[in-house]
Amino acid sequence: MFSLRVTAPDGTSHTHALPSAQVGVGRDPTNAIVLEGVGVSSFHCMIELQAGVVLLKERGSRNGTWLNGKRLEEPTRLGEDDRFYVGPFLLQLTRMAPVPEARPEPEIDFSGSGPILRASAPHRRWRDTQAKLERYAEQWDREDRAPRLLLRDAELRGAKRWLASPPPSPADDAGRLVREFIDASAKAAARRGAMTAVLAVAGGAVVLAGAAAAIVFWPAPDPDAAPTADSGGAAATEGGQDERDAPVRDDDDDDDRPDDDDDDDGDDGDATPATDSDDSAVNGPIVHKVIPNETLDDIAKRYGVREDDIVRWNLINRDARLVEGTELRIETPTLRPLPQQRIEYEVEPGEGWVALAERFGIEISKLRSYNPELEEVAPGKTIVVWIDPKPYKPREPRQPIATLTLPETAQSIGSPNDGRLENGIQLPDNDAYTRKAPSIMYGAAYMIQNLHKAIVTFRQDVDFDGVVIVADMSKKLGGHFDPHKSHQAGRDVDIWLPTLKGVYKKKYLGDGRRETERRAMWYEVDWYATWGLARALIQTGSVEAIFLDLRLQPYVYNAAKNMGATKEELDAWIQYPRKHPAGILTHSADHLSHIHVRFKCAPYETQCKGHRGPPGD
Questions:
Q1: Which of 15, 361, 422, 489 has minimal Cβ neighbours within 10 Å of its Cβ?
Q2: pLDDT digits (tens, 9 = 90+) for 57-83
């Protein structure tokens, strides 16, 4: 009698008896074996038993059934060593030992016997341990039985106890490879013990001889510890760090929020905001979400890891085509790019495939692959575009930075939330930025000078061709400015978050009314440009605070790292990953589509009052 062992992506394993001549596998609940996961079709494959022979058949699944590394094309006989994949699930045929015929024992009550529909906790633990050891043993075998992958200390002791314990049923067996793996681990441990004893004796002799020497035996690393990353994101595997797979944690359910790490239509990277200052928030694993037509090679290069590592961390079939939306865990990335961003764009009159590809700076073939259902585009149609943001370099050749000379009589009086503007100056027109509503764009001379300097400098330091929209500042005389609580003293300015190439349309400015404008959604924002702008503002030395919702700060933080910001600069300039207010770029709730920049009082503004508190707008 045969059974089927199914190993899930998280490493847990369960064994299913094959109760009938035909066993369906797929997502639909009518299947005998129901598997829920990305890449599993409703009716994926069929296992048939014919005169003691087990056949595997395809049922027209979209992503295919992969047997021993090859896509199944026709019914194929299965052997006990054969392995096949259904989506991310690994399936393996096993032979159940014949159950010995029970002798009548009237004095024993068998009323509780029968098929086990739900395993007990000890049985689950036995099978979970089996799945883990099988995974370790397979990796050890794949990598030429490398000694570094053998079990040590507590994990080896646990494996020996597991091997000595009775299996849940006759169908459960440790397997030859696992036994060899545990045996090799035990022999290696014995050799280490013998060497330790020899060195200890030698060390004692040295001490007795009066030599100034010491022999130090470092404790072995915890085998269950997940690989860590250093400050640069590189894998910390030196010194015996365990290189086997770390347990995979589940994502939380936060779709459709700026801090979404399940459904942001791209890999999440370090985009999930943390609420505490935790090194793992900025140096921990990354969850990558597969985009259309992406390959393992693409992903490996993206994070500076090997394809084999991705396969090992996620228990996937390296030969199977990756399915869009599949989440892959990158345990120890050496590179930390920003997430790929999914944009939905409404086609304008006169735009075809060529014009759209030029607009977004991508190949026509890629653009078409993102929209396979569209033969042609037409005005009003919505297309999907995937953009992989890259760090900017300075613009070449550099141009001289123009400076403004303004009268110091234009001064801020009082505080941003309770003040006024004396002799306010309107932000002058300039090609470096777009003024949204000039009639409400007045400020003190100190702010106007430094705002102008920052944006012009940004245009030199960052080769960004997009639009910088400067919005609400203060009224000509300052004072209350509905709906704002601040913006009263000529020291506050709202700047829309710059967008990725191709996203912005001039009509998004509206007709001057808030209800007709369209600001960028967080997933449309160019975070490298955002960081470049924030850096230019900070480096003027005139900015008191830049307010941005904490949920968006991880994008800015990682953009800053990728554009060369030092740890000291990150700590001084950006609040994330700290929960408490810190840095110049700091939290203010619901500032999701713009940064609110507050400038300091000028040295000559004797009636100006500083205020670092959130704007409350």
A1: 361
A2: 999 888 889 888 788 989 999 887 688
Instruction: Provide the 8-state DSSP code for 476.
Output: T
8 A C-beta contact, residue 164 and residue 205: no
Q: What is the dihedral of CA 535, 459, 384, 494, to 10 degrees?
A: 60
pLDDT tier for residue 254 given thresholds of 50, 70 and 90? very low
Sheet-wide strand order for 594-599: 434-435, 469-470, 492-496, 594-599, 543-547, 585-586
Is 131 exposed, middle or buried, given 0-12, 13-18 or 19+ CB atoms closer than 10 A?
buried
- 492: enclosing H helix or E strand: strand 492-496
Q: What pLDDT is stored for residue 278 in this prediction? A: 53
CA–CA gap between residue 345 and residue 416 (Å, rounded): 38
- Sorted by sequence, the CB contacts under 8 Å of residue 41 that are 6+ apart come out as 26, 27, 59, 60, 61, 62, 63
pLDDT digits (tens, 9 = 90+) for 189-200: 887 766 544 444
In the chain, count H helices and then E strands.
12, 25
Q: Which residues lie closer than 8 Å to 588 by C-beta, 6 or more apart?
A: 547, 548, 549, 596, 614, 615, 616
Task: Find the distance separating the first CA and the last CA of the chain, reported in whole Å.
Answer: 71
Q: Average pLDDT of the chain?
A: 80
User: What is the dotted CATH code of the domain comprising 341-387?
Assistant: 3.10.350.10
Cα gap 438→512, rounded to integer Å: 10
Whether pTM > 0.70 for this model: the answer is no
| 598 alpha-carbon distance from chain centroid | 32
CB atoms within 10 A of CB 382: 11
pLDDT by residue (tens digit) across 357-405?
A: 999 999 999 999 999 999 999 999 999 999 999 999 999 888 888 888 9
**Torsion angle (degrees, nearest 10) of CA 168, 172, 174, 177:** -160
DSSP strand pairing (585-586 vs 594-599):
unpaired
Q: For the CA atoms of the chain, what is the radius of gyration? A: 32
* Options 3.40.50.720, 2.60.200.20, 1.10.8.60, 1.10.10.10; CATH of 1-99: 2.60.200.20
Cβ burial of 164 (10 Å; 0-12, 13-18, 19+) is: exposed
Domain 411-599 annotated CATH 3.30.559.10: no
> Backbone phi, then psi, for 444, in 5-degree steps?
-70, 155
For residue 534, pLDDT over 90 is answered with yes
Residue 364: its H or E element? helix 364-370
Q: Point out which residues pair with 332 in neighbouring strands.
A: none
Render pLDDT for 342-353 as a digit per residue (tens, 0 to 9).
Answer: 999 999 999 999
Q: What percent of the chain has pLDDT over 90?
A: 46
Average pLDDT score over residue span 198-207: 44
Please tell me which of 74-88, 99-113, 588-602 the model is most confident about, judged by mean pLDDT: 588-602
DSSP 162-203: HHHSPPSSTT----HHHHHHHHHHHHHHHHHHHHHHHHHHHH
Backbone angles phi, psi at 241, to 5 degrees: -55, 135
More confident residue, 186 or 515: 186
Name the residue ranges covered by the structural domains of the chain: 1-99, 121-224, 341-387, 411-599
